[in-house]
Amino acid sequence: MKNMKNMKNMKNTIRIVLLTMSIVFIYSSCNDSFLDKAPLNEASDATFYTKEADAVAAVNAVYDPMQWIATYKININEVSNEFTNDLGLPRPDQFPSMFQPTVTRELGVWSVFYMGINRANIALIKIPEIEMDENLKVRLLAETKFLRGFYYYILTTFFGDIIIRDEPITIDNLEKAKSPKSDIIDLVRKDLGDAIAGLPERSDQATSDLGRATKGAAIALLGKVELYEKNFAEAAILFKKVIDSQEYMLNAEYGPQFNDGGDNTPESIFEVQFVTNSGGAWGNESEGGYFSGWEGTTQDGFNYGFGGPHQPNQDFVDDFEVGDKRKDYLIVEDGDDYFGTPFNGGRSTTGYGFRKYIIPAALETGGAGDSGINHHIIRYADVLLMYAEAQNETSDGPNTDALSAINLVRDRAGLNDLPSGLSKQDFFDAIVHERRIELFMEDHRLWDLIRWGLAPEVLGDFNGFVEGRHETLPIPQSEIDNNSLMVQNPAYQ
Amino acid sequence: MKNNILKKILAIMKFGFYGFLLQFVCFSLLTAGNGLAQQQSIYDVYLSVQIEDGRLIDAFEEIENKTGFKFSYNDNVVKENSIIRLNITSKSLGKVLGELSKKTNLKFKRINQNIHVSKIKLFERSVTEELSLEQNITIIGKVTSAEDETGLPGVNVIVKGTALGTVTDVEGNYSLDVPDESTILVFSSVGYTLKEVTVGSQTVIDIVMSPDLTALDEIVVIGYGTQKKSDLTGSVSSVSSDEITQLPTVNVASALQGRAAGVTVTENSGRPGSGSTVVIRGLGTVGNSKPLYVVDGQILNDGIGLESINPNDIQSIEVLKDASSSAIYGARAANGVVLITTQRGAEGKTKLSYNMYYGVQQTMDRTEWMSASEYVQNDIDLNKARGMVSPWEAEGDPSQWGQGINYWDKLWRTGSITDHSINLSGGNANSQFLVTFGYLNNKGVMIGQDFERFTVRINTDHQIGKWLKIGESLQISRGNQSAIGGTGAFNEVFLGATSMVPTIDPEKLEDGTWNGPTRLGEPNHFTVWNPRQKVAEWDWQTKKWQAMGNVYAEIQIVEGLKFRSTFNSFFAYNDGTNWSPQLESAGGRTGNQTTFSKGTNSITNWQWDNILYYDNTFGAHHISLLGGVTSQENRYEFLNASGSHFLDENVRVINGSDIESRTVTGGIEEWSLLSYIGRLSYSFKDKYLFQANVRRDGSSRFSENNRWAVFPSFSLGWRLSEENFMQQLSGISNLKLRGSWGKLGNDQIGLYSYAATVNFNQRYTFGESQTPQVGATPTSLANTEIKWEETVQTNIGLDLGILDNKLQFVMDYFVKNTNDMLLRVPIPSSSGYSASPFVNAGSVQNKGWEFSAIYKNVSGNFNYDIALNLSGIKNEVTSLGQGQRIITGHNSGASNGNLIVDEGTEIFAFFGYVADGLYQNQAEIDAVDALNPEREYDPGAGPGAIRFKDIDGDGLITDADRIVIGSPYPDLTFGLNFNASYKGFDFTLFFQGVVGNDILQDNSDSYQMQPGSRLIYNLNRWFKEGDTNDPMLWGVNGFHNASGGRDGRTSSIQVFDGSYFRSKNIQIGYTLPETLTSKAGISRLRVYISTKNLFTIWNRDDYNLVNDPELGSEGVGFGMYNFTTTSQVKTYVVGLNISF
What value of ipTM does the predicted structure carry? Predict the structure, then answer.
């Protein structure tokens, strides 16, 4: 009896030991696969980038940085237009206090366009490996080059000598020294040259691709780069190419292209595509612009941010020639009809307002600061004016090409043609004036004044611009702090 | 001022301390009375005893059988397994006992028919004899255990003040002759509370003994098992169910506050259901510092589920503090481990109990506000100083506005808290069960903040045959929470209430609209909403359903070897809704639409433990082994939807919104963990203790190469009190030295930081139709090399018990070094990635000491105990690797942050400028400007601005002039607890506090401090030269600059003393006599009243800029305060406990 019981116990014991062993065995065999938990909300970097759609999506993401707050949603506009004598009352502390390494607001473009460059670098490495339609592949790579070149160009214009990032960022290549601006310009020329070779003309572009870079955009941008580099002959050749391509023309009227319904007109060469987004938030994830006109219940003034000068001032108003049709559009005064309500001049520090890029609140489905109006980077009128300028510089005075280019722009404004026989300087002065009016709020003014060497004179007393210092922005302090190879721009050391 | 409060607190601490010393000096010894020898002396009783390697108790038994004397002793004096050899032929009992004494270091005292055995002390006689006189009353009775009502054998029954006595037999019966009716009988047994009874006219005295949970040999819960407290070699704090339920506790974690040395607990805020923050032995990381919570063996991921536990269900909470006790939890144990054990059924009669309390709550907010006339006058003065004209000037005499409306007061109400708990338990020898039901309803002190919780728990255990035990624990809960104004630092309800114009009543008008707050175009119209409307109409709710529990099977393979398999699962479903009405705003802000959002998420978590246990004794060697494998998997899914522009405000579902406005997001996250665990415990002669733990963890949070890590620990213990040489030291009943070393991990860095992933939401718009299209790219920088954060901790400790363990001390000293700290290292912005990736960089050291002492006096009708715990921790960042110092905080960013992590500083020390009065006029500014002709001394400074100190002496005020200006860490944290009972009354005092920390008033960029705010503080501002040099004035946003102030620079004038001494609980209870209640079938009926947070001693500032020193993590967090959180609450409670 006792033996029987022992036997039974023994059997139990054996069974249990086997059970235990099998459990341990199950564990160890499931071992590592059990611990493989890949992210489910995002694709793995190792397995994405295999299809045509992946390539398209990768390039779309390179466009995205243009619509961030730090770039064309707010801050590029703010730096380029607000730091001039066009808006607000005199503020001699503006440059000294805001062009500081720690004032992140004005310097945000640094990180966001480098983000665009990194995205471009990833796309340029990944897309060639993808099996897909070869024509599309060529076009996508060309678009990517266009954007990378564009981002470098903006960065070097803003900051001077900058870092060349030509491979995707990893934890091991975070630190890098900067290169001279001339190297950056060479890189931009190379990228835009590649882009010109691979991009379609606008007329060859499918309507569903509207907003993507075109050959014309790349040529025009390269022309602008050469103009800024004072290679006027080269610039003139490039602008001429754009003009001769017959791809672009001036719109009959000046105003409508800057308001609701005016996106991607024949005059547009490249613009940031904004769409009012029901998502509401005006953060970086929103695809809307922030060029909103409506501040408070009174809905009577332009505002993109807190506390800044946002209204055209007397100096700007006084610059209009008599009969300029653009004045009625660009300048509103107390009591004028302003999108259906009378404009309240008392709410404006200068007494004036403007209509360009303004959207009535009712059209912003996502709430205030979510505008669907596109923002222009280059348009045909700009190309014409740059062409005229380049011709004036190369020919040591305005030739007929230069005159007809500027006069096209003047004609539309209802102004008389400039006479022939103007001196080089007179014609230059006319260009300076024309660009100020025509391209108001299009982010050219500050950089034009700087490249012309006029900034100290024009912005010195008004904005506190200091020659030899404020031609570039300081490198953001966070870059200096976290990149031991980086040195601050000399003027800010 | 700071010293004053320190002194006060020290004085109180001293008082507590002297209490112990007093007890130590005045302890009373049992003194035997004189007796007459009427019976035979033990030297006249002869016997022979032969014992070959037998147990001591066998020797006693043999002597008892041969002589008729009875031995009485405590189990801790006479070890069952003490081995002796005795060979005596025909000697007197006196001689035999003398021999025994030599071999065992025991002392024998014969009193009448009993021989009392105790440890011998220095210069004491080994054998003594006493005979008493006149025993004229014979008392008989039975001693039973309160737990199961069975007879208790071996209970000492002693006549108080003498050594007369006996012990109970196997059935718990005893019989004893006592001198007279005034005799007091003392019943004592190890593991039970002492009981005393006056004989009176009774001849039959039956006694029920209650278990003493605080006895030395109590069992403590440790990782994957239990251990006798005397065998512990690590540092473990234990909190009993009594302590947990003494306070009106909503959250289990808050019950730890002030109870365990080295454990810092703060309630997150006064908002019901806001939870608590627990930090064990200091902050070891800038990352996630939450301890690991384990409920009945089930590991709660990130503490989720803790808030659903009913505190009434808890048996005990153990906090594993050192590396040796927590290393068995390996990769997740670096922040310490909190083990929560719920109650289980016990064999015996079925018991039903009902506990309830009801309390009212009041806010402790002390913020003071201007009256309307003060506000108007202030606005006029302010504008005048700025060279402007206030619109109020045209309105006439400011005094006409009188007191005005206090918006702030309209946020508050008297809150309430109600808790009902029913507990049913019982079982037989084979099956035991426990079923509980709990309901809690907490109406917050701020309107719209409510918390409600239902819980059901079922725990059962079944013994099937001899070798199988199965059982389960299950808790199902539902929690409803509403929190108007949300929980964030930027709370618009509070903000609105601080900045509204006090002449306008914010109530609803007859036409259904709300009275807007800015009718006068007053100058400081911040874009904030009518706070009254917001609390009335905003509807923010979360509902949580949770089921957590486990089933286990335990198989006894052979004697000493068992296998246990436990399958745990946790399921939670959360549903949050947020309705925002169209709000009436100051400054007339549009774009605010009716919006509604609904988010649901679910958590599915399982954990399977398979563990072999082996436990055996070989002679003087005791070995206990554990080995097993455990795995856990977690899946989190969420779906959020929102819509706006509602046509009908009564249709508050997504379908009621404008279809164009709707958005949806959703996703899934998963992680898993596979671990092998092992433990060896060894003890020799119960004197020398050794334990080793090891855990090997594999985690899905890391890449394949860094997935596995091993976490070992070792500990030693030496029970000196068991050594012969210690036996002669009188008074010391327990003395143990402990030492441990071990390595722990922290894997709390989010789930996928090792993986390079591609995000699909980087959209851009193309085409004529202007539709956003998918853009895909990596948005965060992966660190494939990322691995665990490691903490190496060394601990030495001492346990001391004197006066038969009536007075016990526990002391610990530890050094905790965290290496490879998981740090988000800032990266160059030219990387194009904004989020800093986690890297293993930096080290932190926490050094600290812990001291706790408890004195228990149990003597008849008046019983009391005093417990004190103290701890001090020093925190230092010892290295940041290659990383830069981290400057973060509310105004985050290198230039504006107010917290710093740097080599040599504490983690998150307060950081800023040193304030040195004000600039009274421009001349003062010009004078400092002259120091450096090339640059402005302090750009932006104007008259009225704070004058910062030029710390680096470069003649300029720059970022480099910032230093550490305060510490959020206390030098000393303490808890002091006093319990007393007299007859049916019981009384509790519980204090808690901190000494030596600072609080940073963090309003540097918020509205409350701006001119125009109604805060009483703003009445005392600097308006013109000579007004005041009061450093209380905020320079930030100072009004000297008409365009809106300077910047958010933090300075030392924002730093306040954070020390406090707070009465956490004052309670008086009364238990009705059983004779009375038993007629109603009630075995126990107790009523009590108590107060929580009744008073606080602290150093208040004049303007209540910090309005309560006990800061929670809700709001700005970490030692900082502004006006955007609900302050702690004061609670008055009445309660009832009934057992049937």
Answer: 0.90
pLDDT digits (tens, 9 = 90+) for B684-718: 988 899 999 999 999 998 888 888 999 999 999 99
Last residue of a domain, one of A326, A351, A373: A373
Residue A314 lies in a domain: yes
| B765/A42 touch (CB, cutoff 8 Å), yes or no | no
One domain, residues A188 and A310 = no
User: Which of these, A233, A236, A257, lies nearest to A386 by C-alpha position?
Assistant: A236
User: Which A positions 42-101 lie with beta carbon below 8 A of chain B?
Assistant: 42-46, 48-49, 54, 56-58, 60-64, 66-67, 96-97
What pLDDT was estimated at residue A54?
Answer: 94
Looking at the predicted structure, is the pLDDT value of residue B783 above 60?
yes
Q: From residue A199, give the alpha-carbon distance in Å to each of A190, A241, B207, B415, B718.
A: 14, 15, 99, 69, 82
CA distance A413 to A406: 11
Q: How many domains in chain A?
A: 2
Q: Are residues A189 and A40 part of one domain?
A: yes
Least confident of A28-37, B25-34, B219-228, B1058-1067: B25-34
Measure the CA angle with vertex B883, ends B879 and B887; round to 5°.
90
CATH at A173: 1.25.40.390
In a domain, A358, yes or no: yes
Between A232-244 and A380-394, two packed helices, what is the crossing angle to 10 degrees?
A: 140
Of A46, A57, A367, the CB nearest to B591: A367
**Cα gap B990→B640, rounded to integer Å:** 45
Query: Is there a domain that residue A129 lies in?
Result: yes
Is the pLDDT confidence value at B25 over 50? no
Q: Chain B residue with minimal CA distance to A19?
A: B563
Q: How many CB pairs under 8 A join A and B?
A: 259
Q: Convert the pLDDT of each residue in B976-1025 to its tens digit.
A: 999 998 888 999 999 999 999 999 887 654 555 555 667 787 777 777 77
State which of A312, A338, A373 marks the end of a domain.
A373
The overall average pLDDT reported for chain A is 87
Q: Pick from B558, B587, B826: which is nearest to A478 by CB?
A: B826
Q: Do the domain assignments include residue A168? A: yes
Count of alpha carbons within 13 angstroms of residue B894, beta-carbon side: 19
Nearest CA to CA, how far is B537 from chain A (Å)? 21
Question: What are A100-140's pLDDT values in tens digits?
Answer: 887 777 788 999 999 999 999 999 999 999 999 999 999 99
Show the domain range for A334: 291-373
Tokens 């009621």, residue located = B656
